Task: structure prediction
Amino acid sequence: MKLKVAIVSSVLVLAAAAQPPVAPPPGAPGAAAQTPGRGMAGGGRGPALRSPEILDDQKVTFRLRAPNATEVAVNGDWPQGRGVKLTKDDAGVWSATVGPLTPELWAYTFSVDGVSLLDSANPNILRDGTRYSNFLIVDGALSDTYQIKDVPHGNVSLVWYDSPTLSSASPRRMYVYTPPGYDKTTEKYPVFYLLHGAGGDEDAWNNMGRASVIMDNLIAARKAKPMLVVMTNGNANQKMGPGYGIVPGQVARNTGNPGEVGVVGAFAGGRGAAPGAPAAPGTPTTPGAAPNAGRGGGAFGGAFAESLVNDVVPYIEKTYRVSANKDSRAIAGLSMGGGHTLAATNAHPDVFSYVGVFSMGTMADVSDKLAALKKAGVKFYYVGHGKDDPVVRVAQGQNLAAQLEKAGINYHYTESTGGHTWANWR
Result:
C-alpha cells in the first residue's frame, strides 16, 4: 500500500503555557495584524505573535506570550544556543534576539518555568524520534538546498513491504522518493539507500534531513542525477515509526526512539539513543560485519543489514522502474546507519558501487572486506564526521579512511566543523 504525502510534511504539535492570552498594545513589536476570524467577532485571542522573526542582519527574535510565567528561555542547536533568557514586557510577552546566525536550518524549543514547550506561533516542526522541536531556516548559501523552491518536485510515498528476514517485525514501512517526471517516462533510475541513526526511523531523513527537498533542488540545478531515494526503518524490532497510533504486533516500548540528536543537538549519553533491543530468536547475523561498528554491528545491526539486501533491494527493483545493477546502487547512513552501511557492504561487496559512512567507522581491521569491495568494483567511498563528533566516532572514521587508502579504493574523507548533527549529515 502506498500513501502519497506532501514533501516535507510534518505532524503539527502545538504547545504553549496554559495562560489566558493578553493582547499587546497596538503596534507592539512582533504583533502581526489579524482580522476577525471564525468565532472571533472582532475580539478573540488578540493579535498573533511573530516568532521566530528572522531579521535582515540574520539575527532572530523569539517571542512567547506567557504572562504568568516567571522564567522563559530558548534552547537552540546553534552555537551558544542553550538557555538564552527571554525578558517580559508589560503585555506578558517574552522575547529575546540572538545571532547573527549562520545560514542553516536551526532547531529550538522554549523552556517555561523548567518545562520544555514548542513555539505555538511556529508551525514548522521537526520530529527526532519521540522528541519534537520547532525549526527555522536562515537564508544563505549553506542553507540554499534546504529551501522549498519553485522547481519540479518529486513524490514521497509511504510504502509497506514484506520482510521475511525480520519476520517478527513484518510488514515494515519505508519512505520512497521518486524524482520529478518519474511517472511520465520509461527511463530506469539509479537508487540511493539512505539510512538513519540510532534515535530515528523511516521518517528521519525526510523530516530532519529534508532529503526530498534537497534532491528536488540538486536535480533542478543539475548537480545530481534523477534517482530514487529509499529511506528505511533501521530498527529491526519496529514495523514503523511513531505518530499513527498503536501498531498491531509491535511492542509498545518499540513505537519510538528518544531521538538521534535530541531537541538541541547536544551529544550526551549516545545522544538520547535508546539501547539496542536484542535480536529475536533465530534472527540472522551478518557474516563479516565490522566489529566495533557501533549499533550497526553485531546481531541487531546485522539483521537489518541482511533485510536491506535480501528484502528491500529486491522489493524496490521489482516494484519500481530502476536499473537493477550494482553500478546503479548507492548506500549511505549516519551514525547507526553508517554501521548498517558497513555491515551491508562488508558482507555483500557485490551489491553497491557507491558507499557513504557519516559519523561512523570502525576500529577493526577490515582490510580483507575492503579488498573484496575493490575486487567487486566499488567506484567511490565517502567517510565524513564532525570535528566535535564523539572521540570514538572520529577515531573510527580516521581508521576506516586509512584502510581505504591502503586498499587503493577511490575515497574521500571529510572532517567538517561541528559535531554529531544534522547540519553535517544533510
